[in-house]
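User: Could you check the structure of this?
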Amino acid sequence: MLRLCSVAAAAAALAALAALPAAQEPKPGNTWYEDAVNLGFKVKAPRDWEFVPGSPLDQNLIGKYADPGEGKYVALGNDAEIVAEILLVKFDRRKGPKKETRQIGDHTVELELEGEKDIDAWMDKALDEGAGWRRVEGPSALKNSLPDAKFSIYEGMSTRVNAGGAKPQPVSAYVATFRIAPELDVAVVGLGPAGKKWRTFESAYAAIAKTVQPIATKAAAGGAAGGTDARSAKRAELQAKIATTPGWSLYETPNYFIVSCYDDKQFIEEMKVRLEAIHQVYEQDYPPALARKIQPKKLADAEGEEGKDDKEGKDGGEPKPAPDPNATVATMAPIDALELGRNSVVRVCKDVEQYHQYGGPQGTGGYFSPIEQELVIYDDKQDQGRDYTWGVMNHEGFHQYIHAFFGNIDPHSWYNEGTGDYYFGFDFNMKTKRFTPKKNVGRQDNILLIRAEYVPLRDFVGWSKEKYYNNKPGPWAWYAEGWSLIWFLRTGASKAKGWQKEWGTILDKYLTTLLETSDPDAAVKKAYEGVDWNAFEECWRGYTL
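Assistant: Sure, the predicted structure tokens are below.
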């Protein structure tokens, strides 16, 4: 979901950054970061800094500590800056699975579980703050610490700027590494400015690094209690992660798991109500019974063809060779994708700063990652308002639901993003706990801006995701056109002048054809088959433009 900022807002943001308080180097606090579930170590948490975990599939980054306010930004001059933060990193070479099988839609996908092998490789390839890191001091023994503990100093160039044309500036990193077990290393990485300011940061990071200690591991609290079904398995997985994520908690609704460190309990409670209410809307518009009716037949047909190919070869010739057991491929799996969708994870960051610390892309208010199996969002009450947050949740929640519904198949962007924006505009009644359709005012305003340069609909409905995002004047325009098409198809039957009855089946035909074929192009062809494009576009223009 794109967030569009005005020139005035951007200027105000730059002015605010220019007036930021000077970043303070961290001091060891009275609490510990502990991982007694898997890694077996602890380290003093920096005082008043907050922990943000690494993404679910990151094989190296455990998490980050940073000032929770804007004081984390260290000005470097020439409109450049760096985030002063501590990163906890692991290099786990112990015996264990090298791949993980994840169920995504009606497919299983094998994911590689091996990250970077050592700190030099990680600094070069995976550290997302700064670039061109090189070791300039060390490794040297870290005194008053664990045996074999070493520290090094790295230097690089900044990658964070406040204005166009800003020049990268030198930055530094303190890196301490520890052998926790024969095949397990942990590193503490502290970032800051190079030059005269660096020494105070280096001393602070060294003081925290020296608190690293090994601890005994034990089973996570909660375990797999409650059964071995998909929901119990997901709950146990999340509980184990929460046990090593200080300050974060797990909440549940019938269809969702919410992971958050946000202390606004009223917000969390309202989110729980809204999530279940919008989920009812998704199920009404995209009935699970329909997917369950079509998907098993599609799966059976696929298995039948695969069995035939195994015996005869695809063209009736030589049999196919046995599959490579080490190959990383997506394969059909006999699972109920919709049941998996009932275990959806929503990660709630408390504000935009934490959202970006976690990895949320700039210019977005939230995102859904099918491979990481979570929707990530934050409370935007300070910027565009909490209503915007709820709209983003509806939009991204649709992506999360429809991904399971269609079984790992992405619909065309006009359908996928347009429908997400359709739900974005819905109005919620907290008393009745029900949503009702309402025009997305922001997208309506945007479509009017391109009324003279919109893409003809017969071309637009076949656009790839690449065209949707890369064509000028920008994706905001095509999000607006996609929304306007969905709004027209869902609400125009009784209101649009010149409406033709057969257009009312377009969305249903697209849906069922995509379920049956897993082919978006076939779905578009079937949905718009026989449509008089001139009449269709004229009616759409009169209704939305």
